[in-house]
Amino acid sequence: ASELGSAHSFPLSSRASLGTRRFKGRAPDYSILLLEEASGRLLVGARGALFSLNALDIGDGTHKEIPWEASPEMQSKCHQKGKNNQTECFNHVRFLQRLNATHLYTCGTHAFQPLCAAIDAEAFTLPTSFEEGKEKCPYDPAHGFTGLIIDGGLYTATRYEFRSIPDIRRSRHPYSLRTEEAPMHWLNDAEFVFSVLARESEASAVGDDDKVYYFFTERAAEEGSGSFTQSRSSHRVARVARVCKGDLGGKKILQKKWTSFLKARLICHIPQYETLRGVCSLDAGNSAHTRFYAAFTLTTQCRKTLEASAVCRYDLAEVQAPTWSTRMASDAGAAMTVGVPEPRPGSLLTPSCLDDPLSQNSVTINVDASMNIHSWPLVTMILGLLWGLRADPIAGLISLTLCPFNASDGWIHKAVVLGSGMHIIEEIQVLREPQSVENLVISLTQHSLYVGAPSGVIQLPLSSCSRYDSCYDCILARDPYCGWDPST
Ligand SMILES: *[C@@H]1O[C@H](CO)[C@@H](O)[C@H](O)[C@H]1NC(C)=O
Ligand SMILES: *[C@@H]1O[C@H](CO)[C@@H](O)[C@H](O)[C@H]1NC(C)=O
């Protein structure tokens, strides 16, 4: 609260909204944003449509649109299956990323029958044929989803199919992989929030593999059971899992399953802050310095009486061995030995993708999910629900990070990380109605923050130094983009 007290606050009506640009088409729910710096386009996935906007000024009227709705027949079939025709039986675009030099790749829920498509980025039109989406996209628009295209392979994590099974999958790849379902539950009712590729092979002296990290909230395993057995407890905890990019799957029961899957618990040291809302990373390309900022809210039980949030910082180095759970036991708690392919190109066992502590081309998988990665909060906010965050690494400044945080009431909070503290320097109201901000993207080139919301897309300048009309105000604001020249 004291941090908030010192922040500059700009409600929608104030002159701070100068320089703000807006876009709204006929579609609702502008939840997917993809910034293509090279072409200067901001690509947007909404409900029943895709848009290509001019990143310089999203409201300049030069946008292109691809309508992509589920047909009335699909919608009524969805309704017959017991789904809500007001919320669930539309085509909610959930994924939009660059596939290759010429094409984008997109997936939509398509009235509970997910479809995906490669889109010609230049022409910006849907192709004549679609790909089956059930391995790649959730059926339910409300389920957490995160996905990446890495060297042409699609890495997605969500709750798949009609039964909503949580899973981390790789598809569109010669070796399609997934996590193990019953009887060993690698994931327990998981809701995914974020994923990131860490190109650790580049910085590694020993030729370690690149890794993909997944952040999610899941049901806690029963205390002390030391196993991934399906828990009936309603207690949910935040976790990070990782897989190695070069994983080719195992043998026998691990065929087409990840052999490099590890997970650990993320702890932000204030009691009851367990629900992970958003994660952003800095320098994900440079393993030694990658830091994750994670936003937490209170557990559901506590939220009935109080809405509060906190941000914790985690270093990737800490997320590596020996913190990780490297073995996974069977239901009965006994260690189980399973074969892995030999030779294993990219050889991918724990905790670095290369170590194979158990030689004999076998790995023991342990269910012990008691590995913890600790951090203490950088900032806490009372009366604010964080939903997502993005980082803006500013070259040439020492450990300075800008993270705009968005709250459920349509306010963006801009924070600067200085050493071991985080200071909220600005609060800007971007939406009139109370609605959740669904996505944030930062462009250093355009000096803009793009906000995806149910009612449209908003573009804000990363800073507006002219708001500060005295040296005192300017310096006190601690905005790394602003400075004061007494002579001018
Ligand atoms: C949803 O289903 C109800 C009941 O069948 C129907 O009356 C209504 O028109 C449908 N709404 C939409 C938007 O399709
Ligand atoms: C990109 O991918 C699409 C769809 O798979 C394919 O048709 C196209 O030829 C690819 N383009 C290049 C340059 O590889």
UniProtKB/TrEMBL annotation:
<dbReference type="GO" id="GO:0001755">
    <property type="term" value="P:neural crest cell migration"/>
</dbReference>
<keyword id="KW-0524">Neurogenesis</keyword>
<protein>
    <recommendedName>
        <fullName>Sema domain-containing protein</fullName>
    </recommendedName>
</protein>
<dbReference type="GO" id="GO:0007411">
    <property type="term" value="P:axon guidance"/>
</dbReference>
<dbReference type="GO" id="GO:0030335">
    <property type="term" value="P:positive regulation of cell migration"/>
</dbReference>
<dbReference type="GO" id="GO:0071526">
    <property type="term" value="P:semaphorin-plexin signaling pathway"/>
</dbReference>
<dbReference type="InterPro" id="IPR036352">
    <property type="entry name" value="Semap_dom_sf"/>
</dbReference>
<feature type="domain" description="Sema">
    <location>
        <begin position="1"/>
        <end position="462"/>
    </location>
</feature>
<keyword id="KW-0325">Glycoprotein</keyword>
<dbReference type="InterPro" id="IPR002165">
    <property type="entry name" value="Plexin_repeat"/>
</dbReference>
<keyword id="KW-0472">Membrane</keyword>
<keyword id="KW-0221">Differentiation</keyword>
<dbReference type="Pfam" id="PF01403">
    <property type="entry name" value="Sema"/>
</dbReference>
<dbReference type="InterPro" id="IPR001627">
    <property type="entry name" value="Semap_dom"/>
</dbReference>
<keyword id="KW-1015">Disulfide bond</keyword>
<dbReference type="InterPro" id="IPR015943">
    <property type="entry name" value="WD40/YVTN_repeat-like_dom_sf"/>
</dbReference>
<dbReference type="GO" id="GO:0045499">
    <property type="term" value="F:chemorepellent activity"/>
</dbReference>
<dbReference type="InterPro" id="IPR027231">
    <property type="entry name" value="Semaphorin"/>
</dbReference>
<keyword id="KW-0217">Developmental protein</keyword>
<dbReference type="Pfam" id="PF01437">
    <property type="entry name" value="PSI"/>
</dbReference>
<dbReference type="GO" id="GO:0030215">
    <property type="term" value="F:semaphorin receptor binding"/>
</dbReference>
<dbReference type="GO" id="GO:0005886">
    <property type="term" value="C:plasma membrane"/>
</dbReference>
